[in-house]
Amino acid sequence: MLSPVQGVDDDYRNFIVMTKLPGSMLLSTYGTWNTAQKERLVASYADIALRLFRLDVPQEIGTFVPGAAPPSPNVFKNIGQYIDFFFEVKRNSPFIGRDGSGQVHIHLHELHQHVDRLLADLLSNAATNPTLLHCVISHCDLNDMNILVDESSGHISGIVDWEYQILQPACLAAEYPPWLLYDCLDPRFTDVTRTLWLDSLGESRRLRELYLQIVKDRDPDYWNALVHDPG
């Protein structure tokens, strides 16, 4: 079930009453699961990801909901505008460059140049593989607290917090199950000793490979967007 709620009564001024989706938070149950349950969960996530990937949505980058991510009322016509917007947000942020040396902005400029080179390669590949830039709907806060699961089967029973959604190019939207990605974090920016992992490094890698095979068998376009490496 993709809908965040089954029923909503918003006749009251200061609160709403809604029907609770079935299932438990993935965060609170995953640690007790066996291998078969984990594999069924990966397959269930793949089913939802592929259904979202094939929804007919407007071919513009942006959000349906005012105030949701990205933090701008803009709708972006192409991925270049989208990336430039986020760099502009960083340049104007009051939280960077306070040391007066300007080094942060220099590094930001270097990073922008690097991303532009990757983007040029992506656009070159997209000329023969346009699916990479096809816009699809993406949940921007799909963490282990927003995924509800049936503990007995290992299947996903619901996904909540859909106010955090956006239309993105497929090359950005296609991703592995988020609870299996922790070994991709950069230790320069993440204190790995204070982060909660749901599974071991080896098991996460094995389950990512399972996910990769499932989506490759079912939807080659999604698989290609997932594994595409701009260099």
From TrEMBL:
Highest taxon of the lineage: Eukaryota
Report domain Aminoglycoside phosphotransferase positions: 10-164
Tell me the organism's taxonomic lineage.
Eukaryota, Fungi, Dikarya, Basidiomycota, Agaricomycotina
Q: Which InterPro entries match?
A: AGP_Transferase, Aminoglycoside_PTrfase, Kinase-like_dom_sf
The record, for SUPFAM superfamilies, names:
Protein kinase-like (PK-like)
PANTHER family, per database record: AMINOGLYCOSIDE PHOSPHOTRANSFERASE DOMAIN-CONTAINING PROTEIN, AMINOGLYCOSIDE PHOSPHOTRANSFERASE-RELATED-RELATED
Could you tell me what this protein is called? Answer: Aminoglycoside phosphotransferase domain-containing protein
